[in-house]
Automatic annotation (TrEMBL):
The keyword 4Fe-4S does not apply. It comes from Aquipuribacter nitratireducens. The gene is nudC. Belongs to the Nudix hydrolase family. NudC subfamily. GO terms for molecular function: hydrolase activity. Its cofactor is Zn(2+); Mg(2+). This is NAD(+) diphosphatase.
Amino acid sequence: MALADLALSRSRLHKIGDDRATPGLLERVLGEPSTVILRVLDGRARLRDGDGPPVLHLLGGDEAVGLLDRLGGPAAAAAGGADPLAGPVPVLLGRFPEGGPRAGAAVVALLGGPDEGPDGTVGGTTARGRWSDLREVGALLDDTDAGALTEAVALEHWHRTHRRCPRCGGPTRPSAAGHERVCDADGSTHHPRHDPAVIMTVSGPDDRLLLGHQGRWPEGRFSAFAGFVEPGESLEQAVARELWEEAGVRVSAAEYLGSQPWPFPASLMLAFHVTTEDEHARPDGTEITETRWFTREGLADAVAGGEVTLPPSVSVARRLVERWFGTEIRQEGVWR
Ligand SMILES: [Zn+2]
């Protein structure tokens, strides 16, 4: 059974329908009265005031006009503000689907840039209202908000770290409604990149689950094994190599279970469950300092007693553990 409804693999915005290459598209969209703006600073977005599940504070109407005015108007904001190298970078994320609230309205993310929050305050942390990050609220937001924030956080990091051309070192500028960057010096176009990583749980011949503890983690944290896919390597090869390196177990079978973007800063997590005939594990002693086999009863007791902390619900790792366990696992301790 594949992993369904992964927290950060949800999206409801229509990404098609606007040709991103159309000249003036962002300026026109920012001028549409129904357009809402998602301001993201350092991976954080503002939440709506009030009790209940978190909801993104999307700026519309007078709030959106006020923010655009501070950036010099829709044309200047569409061009990336007064200093396109500094931003904020505007990105057309998509439009709300027909038949729901805000149907057809566009969502434009304003990413990074001068340290000014949507109400004129600095840095997000001192702004009115509550700002939060994707790790904290990603599993609690609705599908539309979760998808929009995941993409915005990923693109904020990419734009911030790709202001220079990798070919000639010249400045690059956003294009294609924020989905590419262009170097005017040599005409090259650069696309957002992300790095594939495999993540896997392992069960042994007696169906116990093998989890690992990293030396840099607080005591008691246990999680799935994970690592980046190396150049020239298939996903299956990466799974086998990582498990052998980190835990000293060999793969008998590996089942692909799904994927989730993990923009911290730029990973795409590809999830597997592995079975092994090996009964003994050997932590590598550097990254993984402890491996432990769990029965379901043993894991439940260890989590309930606070001896073991599992990764947060927003992660693929937690969902992989729960898939093996059979149900959702509740825990008091928070892993952030
Ligand atoms: Zn260049």
